[in-house]
Each structure stands twice: as structure tokens, then as C-alpha cells.
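Table S5 (text form). Sequence records supplied for joint modeling of the two-component complex.
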Amino acid sequence: MRVGPYIVKQVIYRAALAIVAALAMASSIAGTLAPCAGAADARLLEITFIDVGQGDSILIKSPDGRFMLIDAGEYKNVGAVMGALRDEGVARLDYIVATHPHSDHIGGLSKVIESVPVNAVYDIGRTHTTSSYRYYLEAVRKSPAKFYLARPGVTFKLGASVALSFLWPHDKMPSDLNDSSAMLLLGYLDFDALLPADTGIEQELEIVKAGRVPEVELYKVSHHGSRHSNSREMLAAASPKIAVIQVGAGNDYGYPQAAALDKIKAAGAQIFRTDKDGTVKVTSDGTNWWVSTENGRSLKGDTRGSIGADSQSALRTLVGSVNSTVFHFSGCESVAGISKANLVTYQDREEAIAKGKRPCKICNP
Amino acid sequence: MPLTRFVTLLLLSSLLLIPLPLSSSGNVPDGTAPLAVLDRIEEDMAVVVLEDGSYVVLPASLLPVEAAEGACLRLSMAKDDTARGSLEKSVASDILSMQGAPR
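The corresponding C-alpha cell record, covering 468 residues in total, follows.
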């Protein structure tokens, strides 16, 4: 049978449609963790809190496309880190910061250093005897990366515009490795982030007392939400709008702990946590900031302290579960535990109460 | 300071400081048992890292006396047939007593 020109045109037309549809779908998937509308400019600072289960790993991309990685979680979960590096197209890391030698922070670093060229590694200089630490050290030794000590006053730049400085630890470190962990302050124009690893309250108080903690937009919650960290003094000094907890679902230690969560809420920060929200991405153009999560939560605001109207109102929608007698603001911590199938929305407080629901004592809707 | 010299100094200094609790508590470490290291204590749980980089989480109360972060531990397990016999007898007695009983 002879194939006529019409059929050929139809085949080409349908193939073109299929390609356009595939590209649109790919773009939609890639955009899952993209900033909200209004932040389409590619020249943004991006801070990605990778969901590595129980552990820390933070990938930072400067507006001019340079990358650094803080920690890499446990070795068994390094696939999440490698996936994030691949998704972001990381061909080289300008810096790695190994905050302290515990395996939930440096466990995956050996794999990263063996897989991606690294310019320099910042390390606190405290040794450990675990295999994870020794493998990390061996990977650094074999790589051409420069090796620097993280100390207060040490500053460096990621790309042309992102300034980083260490606030902790001193040469004379506490005996506890968590308390010796590196704390970083990041600044990009008017946007600031405080990134402690696992430091405890005593060290926080010393840093606050020294006047080294400025007001910031973003706070990486210390030690996975431990009650032994995240002091009122630290939170008051930092006064963050966004607090991100890197924590594993159902972890053996009960993190994050209620005492820490209460203090963070009282400080007025919106909490995002990797066990419920998945990977959390914070982006900023230096004046505005956006938060988007793997599981679909979002928030925006600016460095003058105002939270975006649409996101704010979205977080204050009244919701509840068909299995519960309580209703909440949709931004309430408790809502993350309600499955989508059981989630119901109320027009207003009166409707919820008329349907036999009572207000949540935490978010007080 | 070159990296290798820096790392060597760090490792040497740490070897002087790190206690070996099994020796100090009077037990003789069995060099053939798998080596593990106490990575950290989180709340009441001990995180012990094995040589392949994996880890186990145990109640910290099971640790040898004075084991601190970095302590080298030799892991061993012993089979207790007497305990198994007692337990089997106990559960068998329980299940028999439940037969026909109101639930």
C-alpha cells in the first residue's frame, strides 16, 4: 500500500504533539520543587534540604551556578544525595563542609567525594574512629581537594555573591562531638540563613552572648529538633521566618522533640520537616524568598519580614480529618499527619464547630 | 601544613586520647569478633557503626561501662539453649491454659 502525503503529514503532526506533551510533562515534573510564580528568574540562591532520612545534607547553589554541600547523611541513604546532585546538574562542588564526624552527617561523604570533583573541604579537625569517618578521611586524602579547618572568623564565598562564615567551633572544643559541630552563617544580599549542625544549648548561648547571631530568614533547626539544642535565646536572636528540620520518619530517638518544636513555634517560624514534607527547597533573589517541598507545601515572604499573602492565607485555610474531632489551620504541624483521603476543608470556624469539631489547641484556629 | 602530615598528627593525637573500654573494664577483647565503634549516644540509644559503614541502634544501657564516643567495641553473641528451653516451656504452658478459656 502506498502511503500518501496526508498520512505522512498526520504522522509528523502527531509525533510533534507527542514530543510537546512529553516536554510539558517533563517540565511539570522538574518544576515540582521550583519556586512559586514570580520567582521565574534563574538567578536565585537555592538551598535544598535533601531528605536523607535521619541525618543532614544541604545542597546550596549560588545565583551564578556554583555548588557546595554541607554533610551527606548516612552512607546507606547517600542515594538521595547523589540523586539531588544529578537533578541539579552538579558537575563540581566548590566546597564540602563536614560539620562533625557523626555518621548521620559524614557517612555519605566518601561516596560524594569519590564521585564528584571537589575544590575544597572544610572540616572541624576533630577525629573519630568509626569506619564511616575513616572512609571519609581516606576519600579526602585521595582527592585533590584542599583541606581547611572550620573556625569562627573563617569566611569564604560561593560564586560571586553568596558569603559564608563559620560561627563555631573554637580550637578548644567541647568533649561532645555534636557540641563541636560547625555552624555556618550564609548571606545573599538581604537574605540570611543560620545553619547549625548539632550544636547544643551551651554553645548557642556562648555564640549569642558574643553577638554573632543576626536576624535571619532561614534557620536549620539544630540536632534534628533535639530539646538539648534550639534555645529560646538563639531563636530570639535569629528570629527566623522559616525553620527546617532534617529528621527521619519514626526515628529511634524521638526527634523532633516537643520542647524544641514549642520554642520554634513561639519564635514565630513556619516549620518544615523532611520526615513529613520530603525534600525542602528554599530559594531567594536576595529580597524575596520562597519555600517549596517535595510533598507540595509552599510559602513565600520577603526579607522585610512579611509572609506572602496568598501563601499565608493558604496556610490559614481551616481543615480537619474525617477521623478526628479537631480542626486546624492548614499550616498547623498536626495537619501533615492527616492523609489526603481523610482531609476535609471548612469554609469558616462556624461551619467546623457546627459539624461537631473543636479548635486545635496548638494552632488555635 | 601538608594534608597528610595534618591528618597523621590528628590521628596520632586521637589514639592517645581514645580509651579502649573493653580493656580498661577488665575484659579481654576477642580480636576475632567483628569490630564496631560507638559513633554517638542519642537520648538513651547508642549508635554503633560497623566496619562496612552500616550501623545498629541499641539501648545505651547495654554498652560496657565508661564507653564513650569513639570507643572500639568487639561484637559477639552467644546462643543460650537453656533460656530457649525455659521460654518454650513457658509459652507452651500459656497457650495450653488459653484453650477453651473465655476471650
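Note: Residues 1-13, 16-32, 36-41, 309-313 of chain A have pLDDT under 50 and may be disordered.
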